Amino acid sequence: MHVVGDLVGKEVVDSSGDRVGEVKDVEIVKGKQQVKSLIIKEGGAATKIGMGEKKVIPCNQVDAIGEKVMLK
């Protein structure tokens, strides 16, 4: 499984189901092939013009990963 390739581009939603953004990159624990955190580009109107803010989400804040990434 290519974790980075599988996660990049997935929509990220909060516990209410509201869109938070999209996974842009993944931080890996060096030498362990374990995800440390997700780097997301926040959603909203600013994203449409390329000005969405990047945010780092620690792995312990992720509740589930399927078609979307669900945060706790």
UniProtKB/TrEMBL annotation:
Pfam families: PRC. It comes from the Archaea. Residues 6-71 form the PRC-barrel domain. This is Photosystem reaction center subunit H.
